[in-house]
Every structure is written in C-alpha cells, then in structure tokens.
Design goal:
The chain is α/β, with parallel strands linked by helices. Helices cover about 35% and strands about 15% of the residues. It is built from five helices and three strands; from the N terminus they run ααβαβααβ. The chain has a three-stranded parallel sheet with strand order 1-2-3, sandwiched between helices. The longest helix has 15 residues. It starts with 12 loop residues before the first helix and ends with a strand. This is Carboxylesterase 2. It comes from Citrus sinensis.
C-alpha cells in the first residue's frame, strides 16, 4: 500500500457518491473489523505513508489495526519524513522516491518463508 486512502470522510465526494448510506470513517467497508483483518489472504503487507500527507493517520491506523487483529502475517510501515502525499510521482528521482521504489522492489522479491514480525521504518 503506497499512501493508502481509505475514504469515508465527511468531505469525500467520491465516497458519498458511491455509498450515500454509510457510517462515515467507521463504516466496515472503509475500516474492516478485526476478525476480517485476521483472515487477510496474504503473508506480508508493506505500507508507505508520508509525514505531511493528510492521509498519513489512516495508513498508520490500518497498520496498528492489522497488528492487533491476530493476523499471522508480517506487516511493515515505512514513513517518509517531511514528505507530502504521492511525493514519488511529483519528483520520481528524489532520494525518498528512489528509496521507496527500492524498498517496494525488495519487498516483492522477498522470500515468503522469512520470519513473521512487525517492523517500523522512518526515512
């Protein structure tokens, strides 16, 4: 997940259009219950957030909820300090964008048999 957006905010026009009847940020379509997260069908999740992105708290919350859910996989959160939402698209050759790309490639190439634990990184 690179700068994930979970929607559900009061001013999110797309969310309100698609789901006129909803429970806001607590709607299970935007915030799955722990028992659903615990059944996530993969072994690893990598989440990137940017410190100055207004969506950063949503990505961090998802990370924390996934860790607490009882899911048996490995989750990693990478936060890029002093960066905004999708900075890697605006400046794809900056140091943080190259680091994000390399981290993403490394994640994809990882052996699925690696130890299961939680890791947090900040750049």
């Amino acid at each position: 997940m690179v700068h994930p957006f979970f929607g559900g905010t009061e001013d999110d026009e797309m969310w309100l259009y698609m789901c006129a009847s909803n429970d806001g940020p607590q709607d299970p379509r935007m915030k799955p219950p722990a028992e659903d997260l615990a059944r996530l069908g993969c072994e690893r999740v990598l989440i990137f957030v940017a410190e100055r992105d207004y969506l950063c708290p949503a990505g961090k919350n998802y990370y924390e909820e996934l860790k607490k859910s009882g899911w048996k996989g490995r989750v990693e959160l990478v936060e890029h300090l002093d960066e905004k939402h999708v900075f890697y698209l605006r400046n794809p050759t900056c140091t943080d964008a190259l680091e994000l790309t390399n981290k993403f490639i490394s994640f994809i190439k990882q052996n699925n048999g690696s130890p299961r634990n939680s890791i947090e990184s900040k750049y």
